[in-house]
Amino acid sequence: MKYISIVYAIKTAYTNPINDIKTSSIGARIRRYCMRKNRVFVADAFYHITSRTNDKIRVFENRLGRKIMLLTLHNAKNKYHFRLANFCIMPTHIHLLIKPASGTYPAKIMQWIKTNSAKHWNQVHGSKDHLWGDRYFARPVRSPQEFEFVMNYIDQNAVKAGLVPNPADWKASGAYYKARNISGLVDFDPHERQPYVKLLSPIPPLVSRLMPQAQLEYTLKYYGVFAEAIHSLYTLIPTIPQLGESAFLQKPPICLHYSTGITDYYIYEFDGYDSFYGRVHSTVNPVEPEYTRFSLSALKNNPLMKLEVSVTNKYFLRK
Question: pTM for the complete prediction?
Answer without folding.
Answer: 0.55
